[in-house]
Automatic annotation (TrEMBL), chain A:
<keyword id="KW-0040">ANK repeat</keyword>
<protein>
    <submittedName>
        <fullName>Uncharacterized protein, isoform A</fullName>
    </submittedName>
</protein>
<dbReference type="GO" id="GO:0000900">
    <property type="term" value="F:mRNA regulatory element binding translation repressor activity"/>
</dbReference>
<dbReference type="InterPro" id="IPR027417">
    <property type="entry name" value="P-loop_NTPase"/>
</dbReference>
<dbReference type="GO" id="GO:0035212">
    <property type="term" value="P:cell competition in a multicellular organism"/>
</dbReference>
<dbReference type="Pfam" id="PF21010">
    <property type="entry name" value="HA2_C"/>
</dbReference>
<feature type="repeat" description="ANK">
    <location>
        <begin position="408"/>
        <end position="440"/>
    </location>
</feature>
<dbReference type="Pfam" id="PF07717">
    <property type="entry name" value="OB_NTP_bind"/>
</dbReference>
<dbReference type="InterPro" id="IPR007502">
    <property type="entry name" value="Helicase-assoc_dom"/>
</dbReference>
UniProtKB/TrEMBL annotation, chain B:
<protein>
    <submittedName>
        <fullName>Uncharacterized protein</fullName>
    </submittedName>
</protein>
<dbReference type="GO" id="GO:0098730">
    <property type="term" value="P:male germline stem cell symmetric division"/>
</dbReference>
<dbReference type="GO" id="GO:0003723">
    <property type="term" value="F:RNA binding"/>
</dbReference>
<dbReference type="GO" id="GO:0017148">
    <property type="term" value="P:negative regulation of translation"/>
</dbReference>
<dbReference type="InterPro" id="IPR035979">
    <property type="entry name" value="RBD_domain_sf"/>
</dbReference>
<dbReference type="GO" id="GO:0005737">
    <property type="term" value="C:cytoplasm"/>
</dbReference>
Length: 1213, 229
């Protein structure tokens, strides 16, 4: 028998393994040790590698294929410096409880099963249900009710609701169902004197807030009386409350906490058609609830006619369908039509300054040289192999496909056509190359192909000019800002488009902010008619909506919004709509275990719903869709529910609380949009790995605390480590930065607008340099987040961001930081709510930030928090090894590598083989190099078994020991070190468990609490240890990151800026315009420019100059020529060096001459002279002899434009 | 009598409020709203039990009709240890301070009772960005207050005391001011003004102190001129 196993069975198993998909396999420990040798020998014969590992105290064999990334060729060394050893010993001697046995320690934490009752309660139970008091309706209320489009159908709806427990009500957004249906039910119950409590469930917090306020306004009350609200950190409910607004996520959270559907008569779930993941889970819970609460009535509100899905899911109920397609007059233009329309219209956009900037001086970087070499090699050889380096640079190093040789100006596509290589030509065109670019000899790809007479090439190019394979906006990944601006010019300057409000739908907040600046700069320079800009997005405060609603009706409103507009019933008529037609979908890809933020086209039904947002009654309403007609035709009819594609970590955790006795996969399989099993399986494994679930899929204490923190589980774990190591502030910054857009991300060619896209390489290099400056040789991208935030904060000097504009980057940075601040404070409140941060004691904010200025500790906390996202450098194999079997690469974004730098060159600089990473697909976007000790201390499961340690050679004298921290992290160190590390791990993770389990007990964490003063002790000693380790490995001393107490900034920067520059204000200021109600058109406005000499900086000038001073130097000259149609601008000018520093608008307000600053920057006079020459304008003389002087309008205009369209990275010195 | 019939219970963020449903005449209501006869209950067990406030009201109502109880809770519904209680008849206060602890003790609740300070003034310091009149206008946008007193403690350096109707209002204002505190400069700081402070409402007896009229003019400039705009 033995012989058969050894001769036949084992080789057969190995052959199966080779044929299979897996990269490595562990053979069960039931094999005997004699058979281990057979496996090892046999696999060696088959070209496999093998290793004996310890699993649960027993040794077994693991077999790896050659390409497996889990196999570390040899264990990574860990040595400790003597100061670290001393510090660790001191720590161990001071920490109590070390002597506790492993067994005992395990028993303490594993016997208890956590359930919903351990969660902190988030709200008090709902008051008892009771009938509403009949009330008298005022005329206004009656009118309001009658104004609902569904008012005629009230009786039918109520009848359906009496007949069925579940009603699906389909109607357009304009029906305002989430207001109408609850009011209808309440009215009916008032008459019938029946018990009523309606829970209205919205998708987003902001929508719930907005709707509750609207409804309270209808009753003439405050929120908290008849209408209540229950949201995280804001709840207001009383015994007289009959309608409560909430979100699906929050309702599920309270269900998880053990509440049920008692005391609720009706549940109204809004926007079920969107299949928001939490709404989908809620539907499952509702289906179960119908079994236990027979009297519950459920109304599902949807905007999509196909309700069968919901009825089939609930197996009961009925539908009311009112989504008849209206006979709209709206004209819809697709991309092709928009392009021709703009080309025909002939838009005038003001002077083309910056067009003539010489390119030569911008193109002398190492990267340019390398790319030039690539192109030269290709030109000389012309083979497939010779174009490969160039293609690599495009695909992996963000080089623009239209890269021009810095000397002869040739592009790759031009060379391909010169070489008559049709295949290359096609490939490059497909990659988005532009054949119209000319070289130094004024030749372009088309003319060259024609002169060579190669038919295949000419065909390929002809085909291109017909269809335009891939132009910028044929991909959903990029939004064509230039085109949007062109459309805006079309709408606002061409007489065939009558004025009307404009709605612009963008995929993300970042896009909104960027477009906002572009619109502002075009407005303020006077090229576009002045307008009021409003923003709407998911994480806004209610003030943003209020500002839009309260805006005067006679202004042209431009609303920039994300897809939230689809569920926000606004009473603002829109005449035009510009729809980017794409959205950002977070995806989980189970084939390579990766998360990816992918841009996709939205589905057809979604576009149809967006079309209805346009006021159909307006005569020539127009809808611009930035998508080709062909692409539109091939879109799917409905979008995939997010539950099926997203990263399910928080969903899995929630599900476990909702139904603790079911397997997560089983539960999710019975939801309305079941996710693929493989995704669920993977996520559960990851959750087990990061200790959110234990090995039996039960929730751990970490999971219990993370439920209340609105961040992905991995980042939640990071916060916990930040708390444990007392460096919460930088960790908070890192976590919130990872959740918002990165202002320092390296842009693609397509991300840069047409004015500057010639300088892509230069801009990318500048940003890369900026990243390197911020990283300051710490080999960390996470450090950049911390530094960037701190620099931004200190630049503000604790004030709100100034209202003048500098350049696009500055504006976007302020906008992104506003969002980041918002996320930060939200996380802080949720940490407080989860009891992880207390108001006093050891866990107070001050104490948790004792180590915040110590980057060494922050790195250690990152290691613990980011586990298992750890890679190891394998210099021999020239690659990164990681837990993911697929290969990973360093993205050009990280500071760990330069552009076009081969991996082995960058790896030479790393001080340590361990790298923490955040990846998108297989690219490592953000990385930090950490010392081996950090990995040894904080990676791996919370409890390392002794079996994970084994002697290298049992009989040898060097007592070096192998330690397997998880299935692939393999280290070797001396025996004494191992013991020290194991002890430290044990006491650290004891603290970890204590914190998570007992954080609700405030008494335990008092400063003078006798049992444990260990938190500070631990953090303090580890700080010393990591500092000496970092120095020993050779990390430079990090620049100080000073912790400053958390400053709460008002999160309304963008709102204030837009209000500041909108012309509503201007009307209020000038009485003359008040009397003329007709729309104000800035095209009749004349601009006069004054030059004012100053010796101070702009900041000081505006602070110090008094009104009498302004009156003296400017007012008396400017006042006579000022009129409503003649605006006065003041340009500040300073000598040595000769620069223009600021542009502001001067106005007489209440008889006083005041300045309102528009732009502030620093523009050399020589640039102005150059611009004047290139635009054929008389060159002015700025000699500063006069204090103030009137300058030529055209020169003034040029200066204004130079300020408005400046590029941060190109012009910054 | 039915508790629900007699009282109205509501939760607004960190405050559980139990209020009488009785109709009160306007003067009486205004008087009670300004904190007349308010009691401060402390040492309440730190538990998340909704029945405790109810029980407190039930026990306390044996001495007379309750106007309102404001019971403070934290994020997870756990009591923060204190509450405010008011009788409709404010004169019950003295008796309540004496008797209530005993009543509570009999019901196995060890709650301390004393007269509430009714702290309802906030002190804003080091706000250098604005002149007093600008400050008045700006702060009205942030949160409504009933009066503003300005002290010029050094030349061009002012201390602002904002008075509110009651402690609850002041607490809300405290929160909203902290949210926008950076508007007033980098060192601006807002704090509660303790009623025993020399600047507080009761101790404010300056001979030359004058109230401005609606247009921010001094009614009697001849009387004093120690404060210029």
């Amino acid at each position: 028998m033995n012989q058969v196993i050894q001769d036949k069975f084992i080789p057969q198993q190995l052959l199966y393994f080779i044929a299979g998909r897996r990269c490595c396999q562990q053979f069960a420990c039931t094999y005997r040790s004699a058979e281990h040798d057979v496996i090892v020998n046999c696999s060696r014969a088959l070209g496999l590698r093998s290793q004996v590992v310890q699993h649960n105290g027993q040794s077994c064999v693991k077999v790896f294929k050659q390409a497996c990334r889990h196999y570390l060729e040899e264990p990574k060394q860990l040595t400790l410096t003597s100061p670290s050893l001393t510090n660790l010993f001191t720590l161990m001697s001071r920490v109590t409880n070390v002597a506790k046995e492993d067994q005992e320690y395990a028993a303490e934490y594993s016997s208890y099963r956590i359930s919903g009752s351990d969660l902190p309660q988030i709200n008090i139970p709902l008051p008892a249900i009771r009938p509403p008091l009949p009330r008298f309706k005022t005329e206004a209320q009656r009118n309001f009710l009658n104004s609902f489009p569904g008012h005629q159908l009230s009786k039918d709806i109520l009848q359906l609701m009496y007949a069925h427990r579940l009603v699906v009500f389909n109607a357009n957004l304009s029906w305002d169902k989430s207001m109408f249906v609850p009011l209808l039910i309440l009215d009916d119950c008032e008459v019938k004197k029946s018990n009523v409590k309606i829970i209205c469930i919205e998708k987003e917090t902001i929508i719930a807030t907005y709707n509750s306020h609207r409804m309270a306004e209808y009753f003439g009350e405050q929120v908290g009386e008849t209408v209540g609200i229950q949201l995280p950190h804001s709840s207001s409910v009383s015994t007289t409350t009959h309608i409560i607004f909430s979100t699906a996520q929050y309702v599920l959270r309270s269900l998880a906490g053990g509440q049920n559907f008692q005391n609720i008569s009706h549940l109204v779930v809004n926007d079920v058609h969107m299949h928001d993941p939490y709404t989908d889970i809620l539907l499952t819970e509702l289906k179960n609830a119908l079994n236990t609460c027979p009297n519950l009535r459920i109304v599902l509100l949807s905007q999509m006619p196909a309700a069968d899905k919901f009825l089939a899911f609930f197996e009961e109920g009925c539908e009311m369908n009112r989504t008849e397609i209206p006979q709209t007059e709206t004209r819809i233009s697709f991309l092709d039509e928009i392009h021709s329309c703009i080309a025909l219209a002939g838009i005038h956009k003001g002077p083309d300054i910056y067009k003539e900037i010489p390119e030569v001086f911008r193109t002398k970087s190492q990267r340019n040289e390398q790319m030039d070499k690539c192109l030269q090699a290709y030109e000389e050889l012309g083979t497939d192999a010779s174009i490969r380096p160039f293609l690599y640079a495009i695909n992996y190093d963000l080089v623009p496909v239209n890269y021009r040789h810095s000397v002869n100006g040739k592009t790759a596509v031009l060379i391909a056509s010169q070489l008559n290589n049709a295949n290359h030509l096609r490939l490059l065109l497909f990659m988005g190359a532009d054949p119209y670019i000319v070289d130094e000899q004024q030749q372009n790809a088309i003319s060259l192909a024609a002169s060579k007479g190669n038919n295949e090439c000419i065909d390929a190019l002809n085909n291109y000019s017909l269809h335009g394979y891939v132009v910028k906006n044929a991909k959903p990944d990029f939004v064509d800002y230039d085109l949007i601006i062109d459309i805006m010019y079309l709408l606002l300057t061409k007489p065939e488009f009558t004025p009307g409000n404009i709605l612009i739908i963008m995929p993300t907040y970042y896009h909104i902010v960027k477009l906002n600046y572009m619109l502002l700069s075009h407005c303020l320079t006077g090229n576009l008619q002045e307008l009021s800009i409003f923003l709407l997005h998911e994480n806004m405060r209610k003030d943003y909506i209020d500002a839009l609603i309260k805006a005067r009706s006679n202004t042209v409103k431009v609303v920039l919004t994300t897809e939230i507009i689809e569920s926000l019933p606004l009473k603002v008529p829109f005449k035009y709509q510009i729809d980017s037609a794409c959205r950002l979908t977070p995806m989980y890809d189970s084939t390579n275990y990766s998360i990816e933020d992918r841009y996709e086209w939205v589905a057809k039904d979604c576009l149809a719903r967006r079309e209805l947002l346009v006021n159909t009654e307006a005569p020539d309403s127009h809808c611009f869709r930035l998508i080709f007609k062909e692409a539109y035709d091939s879109l799917s009819d409905t979008s995939t529910p997010p539950l099926q594609t997203m990263y399910l970590d928080r969903i899995c955790l929630l599900v476990k609380f909702l139904s603790p006795h079911k397997i997560i996969g089983e539960y999710l399989d019975f939801t309305i949009s079941p996710p693929p099993m493989i995704n669920v399986h993977h996520i559960v494994q990851i959750l087990k790995k990061i200790d959110v679930l234990d090995e039996y899929e039960d929730v751990t204490w970490l999971g219990c605390r993370l439920l209340d923190i609105p961040v992905p589980c991995q980042l939640g774990r990071l916060l916990v480590f930040g708390i444990l190591l007392q460096c919460l502030d930088p960790i908070l910054t890192i976590v919130s930065s990872l959740m918002t857009a990165d202002p320092l991300g390296i842009p693609f060619n397509e991300d840069i607008d047409h004015l500057w896209d010639r300088f892509t390489i230069f801009i990318q290099n500048r940003i890369k340099n900026e990243r390197a400056r911020l990283a300051d040789n710490q080999f960390s991208d996470h450090f950049i987040f911390v530094r960037l935030f701190q620099e931004w904060q200190s630049r503000l000097k604790n004030k709100i961001p100034p209202l003048h504009l500098t350049d696009e980057y500055d504006f976007v940075l302020n906008g992104v930081m506003e969002q980041l601040n918002n996320t930060r404070s939200e996380i802080v409140s949720s940490l407080r709510a989860a009891n992880l941060v207390h108001s006093r004691g050891q866990l107070s904010m001050q104490n948790l930030n004792l180590m915040s200025s110590n980057w060494h500790v922050v790195k250690a906390a990152l290691t613990g928090g980011m586990y298992p996202n750890i890679c190891a450098v394998d210099v021999g194999k020239n690659c990164l090894k990681s837990v993911w079997c697929s290969s990973v690469h360093l993205h050009p974004n990280t500071v760990l590598r330069d552009f076009l730098e081969p991996f082995n060159t960058s790896a030479l600089n790393f001080r340590s083989p361990w790298i923490l990473c955040n990846k998108q697909r297989s690219h490592i976007l953000y990385a930090t190099v950490v010392v081996p000790l950090a990995v040894a201390l904080f990676a791996g499961p919370t409890r390392l078994r002794l079996s994970q340690i084994s002697d290298t050679q049992s009989n040898s004298h060097d007592r070096n020991v192998n330690i397997f921290i998880d299935e692939w992290i393999w280290m070797v160190m001396s025996n004494s070190n191992v013991q020290l590390i194991m002890k430290t791990r044990q006491s650290f993770f004891k603290l970890y468990h204590d914190l998570l389990k007992f954080c609700t007990d405030q008494e335990r964490w008092r400063i003078d609490s006798p049992n444990d003063g260990n938190l500070a002790l631990m953090a303090d000693s580890l700080a010393k240890v990591f500092e000496s380790e970092d120095t020993a490995v050779g990390f430079a001393k990090p620049p100080p990151i000073n912790y400053r107490p958390f400053v709460k900034l008002p999160p309304l920067y963008l709102l204030t800026v837009n209000a500041h520059f909108s012309w509503i204000q201007e009307i209020e200021d000038s009485l003359a315009l008040f009397q003329k109600p007709q729309p104000f058109n800035s095209h009749f406005v004349e601009r006069q420019f004054f030059l004012l000499y100053t010796e101070e900086s702009s900041e000081d000038f505006y602070n110090n100059s008094t009104s009498t001073y302004i009156e003296n130097v400017l007012g008396k000259f400017a006042r006579p020529i000022e009129s409503p149609n003649r605006h006065i601008f003041v340009i500040l000018y300073s000598k040595n060096p000769d620069v223009m520093i600021s542009v502001s608008r001067a106005k007489t307000i209440k008889g006083e001459f005041t300045l309102k600053e528009y732009f502030r920057n620093c523009i050399g006079v020589y640039e102005i002279l150059e611009a004047c020459i290139s635009l054929n304008v008389n060159v002015p003389v700025f000699d500063g002899r006069l204090m103030s002087c009137l300058i030529d309008k055209r020169v003034g205009n040029i200066i204004m434009h130079l300020f408005a369209f400046r590029h941060h990275w190109i012009h910054k010195r | 009598m039915d508790f629900e019939y007699q009282y109205r219970m509501s939760q607004c963020n960190g405050t559980l409020k139990i209020e009488t449903r009785n109709f009160l005449v306007r003067d009486l209501r205004a008087c009670l709203e300004s904190g007349e006869g308010e009691l401060f209950l402390s040492h309440i067990p730190r538990k998340s039990d909704v029945n405790i406030p109810r029980r407190i009201v039930e026990l306390a109502s044996t001495l007379g009709d309750i106007y309102a109880l404001r019971y403070k809770i934290d994020f997870s519904g756990i009591c923060r240890g204190f509450a405010y209680l008011q009788y409709i008849d404010a004169s019950r206060m003295k008796m309540a301070v004496k008797c209530l602890p005993k009543i509570f003790k009999a019901a196995n609740l060890r709650i301390a009772v004393k007269k509430s300070n009714n702290t309802r003034e906030l002190l804003l310091r080091q706000a250098q960005m604005f002149s007093p009149v600008q400050m008045y206008l700006e702060m009205q946008k942030v949160c409504q207050f009933s009066y503003l007193r300005v002290y010029e403690h050094r030349p061009r350096e002012f201390l602002y005391v904002f008075g509110y109707i009651n402690n609850d209002q002041a607490a809300n204002a405290h929160q909203s001011i902290r949210a926008v505190i950076r508007m007033f400069g980098s060192h601006a700081h807002v704090a509660w003004l303790h009623p025993t402070s020399w600047m507080s409402e009761k101790n404010c007896r300056s001979r030359c102190c004058q109230k401005l009229d609606k247009n921010f003019n001094l009614p009697d400039p001849s009387k004093c001129n120690c404060f210029k705009f």
